[in-house]
Structures are given as structure tokens and as C-alpha cells.
Write a structure and sequence with these properties.
This is C4-dicarboxylate-binding protein. The chain is α/β, with parallel strands linked by helices and 80 residues long. It has one domain (10-77): Periplasmic binding protein-like II (D-Maltodextrin-Binding Protein, domain 2), CATH 3.40.190.10. The protein has helices at residues 34-42, 55-60, 71-77, and strands at residues 10-13, 27-30, 46-49, 66-69. It is globular and about 30 Å long. The model has no long low-confidence stretch (mean pLDDT 87).
């Protein structure tokens, strides 16, 4: 199941993610949405809900390890 409102979703992180096992223990920013939170939990990562505007500072300060969103949304928001 996927939410196609803004297109397919991607995970961008500080370290390469080649398999779902690579997500274990990573703190991934998600929208405050139950579907995305549960999906990230199911993959073994720790979902960290926060507004999109807080992503860049959270990445640089180590609050999160990555972000889950469509790349088009991140580019428009100039987040990463």
C-alpha cells in the first residue's frame, strides 16, 4: 500500500540503505500520519514525526538520521 497523493515515497538518509535491514535503529522523519508511522516501524526504524520545515536542522543536529517523503516534495520545500 502506498500513498500516491504526491507520488511514490523515498527514504533519504545519512548512510546508504540497500536492504530493509539497513533501517534498523535509524530515526526517520515521517509526517504525523499513522500510516507512515506504522510503515517505518514495520521496517525496523524509529519513526520521528515532525513538520517538514524542521527536517534540515534535525538532520544537521543528529535528531534524525533520515527522512521519508517523495523527493519532489523535499525539493520544493528545499529541505535537503
Amino acid at each position: 500500500m502506498n500513498n500516491y497523493l504526491y507520488g511514490t515515497r523515498q527514504i533519504i538518509s545519512k548512510k546508504p540503505i540497500r536492504t530493509v535491514d539497513d533501517l534498523a535503529g535509524l530515526k526517520i522523519r515521517v509526517p504525523n500520519n499513522v500510516m507512515q508511522i506504522k510503515a517505518i516501524q514495520a521496517m525496523g526504524a524509529t519513526p520521528t514525526p515532525m513538520p517538514l520545515g524542521e527536517v534540515y536542522p534535525a538532520l544537521t543536529q543528529g535528531v534524525i538520521d533520515g527522512v521519508e517523503n517523495p523527493i519532489s516534495v523535499l525539493a520544493r520545500a528545499k529541505t535537503v
